[in-house]
Amino acid sequence: MSATAAPVAVARGESPSRRALRRFIRHRLALAGFLVVLTFVLVAILAPWIAPYDPIETSWSRIRRPPSELYWFGTDENGRDVLSRVIWGARASLMAGVVSVIGAVLIGVPLGLLAGLAGGWVDALISRIADAMLSIPFLILAIALAAFLGPALENAMLAIAITASPVFVRLARGMALDAKSTDWVEAARSLGNPPWRTAFVHVLPNIIPPLLVQSTLSIAEAIIAEASLSFLGLGQQPPSPSWGSMLNSAQRFLETAPWLAIAPGAAIFVVVLAFNLMGDGLRDALDPRADRR
Amino acid sequence: MSTPVLDLARVTVEFPTDRGRLRPVDGVSFSVEAGKTLAVVGESGCGKSVTALAIMGLLPQGGEVGGGIRLGGEELLALTPDQRRARRGGEMAMVFQEPMTSLNPAFTAGEQVAEALRLHQGLSPDAAFAKAIEMFARVRIPEPERRARSYPHQLSGGMRQRVMIAMALACRPRLLIADEPTTALDVTVQAQILALIDEMKRETGTAVVLITHDLGVVRDHADDVVVMYAGRVAERARAADLFANPQHPYTIGLLGAVPRLEGGAARLASIEGTVPDLMNPPPGCRFAPRCPFAIARCAEQPPLAEVTPGHQAACWRAPLDTLLEQAA
């Protein structure tokens, strides 16, 4: 039996994560998105070594120069190299995106699991707060919180994390409700698992795929939110570079020096698109129903 | 006689609903001794699964249990939720009806068996996994090393039910509750799983509560039987006695509805009428509206009375022997 069964078992024995990886790689747009994200991450990490100029060093002798061989993306109203600022700005944007979404997951998922598994008034309380937060437009709430906390990149990230968390509360709650009625959760309880262990050891691993997809899409949203807050002066503080604040100062020179807006604007667009493509690809790759086609 | 492993004394289960209190289990008493199998029989909705969940302490939110449930002499209903949780999996365990969905899809089968050992015996992950592989061998899973590393979707239904049994028995519980463990399986696999439960019972001395609606299973695997109807015990007897000499009209109806190989193409009997609405049960004997032998006195609830030693029926007209002769 073993001689004939073995190869079949190997094919069927592919673990869920390997299968997802194989499907993700086959998904061309998703892979492209992932490579773009990876490039930006590397650029952000390597900024001190690859930025051709100091991003905050001003020079009166090279104000608003158009793109040239020396200054690929031109220089800004203070004579700073736009390319260097976009490279350094990637740090603020990616960090704001990733850190605030991690914060949102850490706030939202435990609350969502608690709401879904505990039920009753706990669920009602958590769900109504999440609903109330979701009824306020994302940016308005983020701006209000950031303004309340004071203008700084850390505060902007915290504001975005809080604003993005209700989505994760809802997602985790819904998945926990599904899981609660399954036989394997009942079986886990019948083995004597305490409630917290049922939630984190049994339910959580089963809801990681949708959480991963939502996180990726939320990062795109958080990057836009950070850029918006910085545009309004509530995020990264000058002179530190940030795509949002660069766009803000660029708007005064839109007709005379459009390159000031084009570079950071394009960077935001490309990164957000890449995260969205990656999220869509992950969703397809992690969908267990998309199997055997 | 030694203390029974499990002793239920007039157990009731109630749920508050919008229309009033629902009582799916109403004064159920029975006990099981070590190394014996007690079958709880009845149709869907008669309260047998609710009874099992009440014993395990796994009733859905709002469920209230009354009466007494003793495990090895210890009153479970007097324990705190944490203390009860500590008994689950260690001293009492349950095998569920649906092996296809009772395993967590995110973990390998071996990890899930190992979890029971980690929770209750404090074993390290490696030691627990090694012991899980031993359990796989004991429940006759071929290639236990490889199967322990398989995910549930890679296992057949029968194999998964074996994993569930390994999980339940890993910590050598005193009590195993099997809630229709074979209903979802192929007939050939059913026999194997029941034989496995019997074998494990002999090996470990576990008391087994086997919940089923299949009287063929009861005949072959149970020592004692409790027949439940609409939340109450209708009849309680040794398995052999029950089949030879049923003393409750409902049991007779059930036995008449079992197809037999011998005896040719006799018509199967059916029990007329439907199960009473538990929100609004008939007064007295709940089977009376469907009972061919019902008399005026059946409007009072009959006690569970001894008919012959060790054989009890909740029927005013028991023993039924003369009635049956007249009917025949």
UniProtKB/TrEMBL annotation, chain A:
Coiled coil: none annotated. It is a multi-pass membrane protein. The chain crosses the membrane at residues 29-51, 94-117, 129-149, 256-278. Its main location: membrane. Residues 90-279 form the ABC transmembrane type-1 domain. PANTHER family: OLIGOPEPTIDE TRANSPORT SYSTEM PERMEASE PROTEIN APPC, PEPTIDE ABC TRANSPORTER PERMEASE PROTEIN. This is ABC transporter permease. It comes from Falsiroseomonas oleicola.
From TrEMBL, chain B:
Pfam families: ABC_tran (PF00005), oligo_HPY (PF08352). One of its GO terms (molecular function) is ATP binding. SMART domains: AAA. The keyword NADP does not apply. The keyword Transport applies. Keywords: ATP-binding, Cell membrane, Membrane, Nucleotide-binding, Transport. This is ABC transporter ATP-binding protein. Its main location: membrane. InterPro entries: AAA+_ATPase (IPR003593), ABC_Ni/Peptide_Import (IPR050388), ABC_transporter-like_ATP-bd (IPR003439), ABC_transporter-like_CS (IPR017871), Oligopep_ABC_C (IPR013563). Residues 6-255 form the ABC transporter domain. Belongs to the ABC transporter superfamily. Transmembrane segments: none annotated. PROSITE patterns: ABC_TRANSPORTER_1, ABC_TRANSPORTER_2. It is found in: Cell inner membrane. It is a peripheral membrane protein.
